[in-house]
């Protein structure tokens, strides 16, 4: 497994940056009397990284997949709200920040989707199911593959050129 902690995940780091960007945006005076949309987008933005973290910590691919799709839904909610802000005349002077945050939501959504697809295609059930026996089997398979590659290389070296 490539990542041992959710804090090391690039998509989690991006989600944290998105949430920080949303909080910076909602600190602007334009949000002063718009408490409900401010609260909504802050909660949705916070939900992205939290769901990635929770799913990762669960230890099974099925649970991780569930939380990745919840995180993807939250990032879609943030993107939708950013489009709404673009349509509200009182936010016109924030358009550059809004556009940059929308681009970040697109990137995070793509990352989550790709990760979910890779999990769906995986035969592994998750870290919770990794035992000493499965680690040994995995190491044996890796050694076998390495041996077969070396064997192939030797055969190709000794076979006459056609």
Classify the beta-strand content into a percent band. under 5%
Instruction: Give the tally of β-strands.
Output: 0
N to C succession of SSEs: HHHHH
Q: Remind me, CATH topology of the largest domain?
A: de novo design (two linked rop proteins)
Architecture (CATH level 2) name of the largest domain = Up-down Bundle
Integer tally of domains: 2
User: Which structural class is indicated by helix and strand composition?
Assistant: mainly alpha
What is this structure, in a nutshell?
This protein is mainly α and 162 residues long. It is 75% helix and 0% strand.
Task: Give a written overview of the molecule.
The chain has 162 residues and is an all-alpha fold. The chain folds into 2 domains: 6-127, Up-down Bundle (de novo design (two linked rop proteins)); 131-162. Helices cover 75% and strands 0% of the residues. The chain contains 5 helices and no strands. Helix 1 packs antiparallel against helix 2 (35-58), helix 2 packs antiparallel against helix 3 (61-87) and helix 3 (61-87) runs antiparallel to helix 4. The protein starts with 9 loop residues before the first helix and ends with a helix.
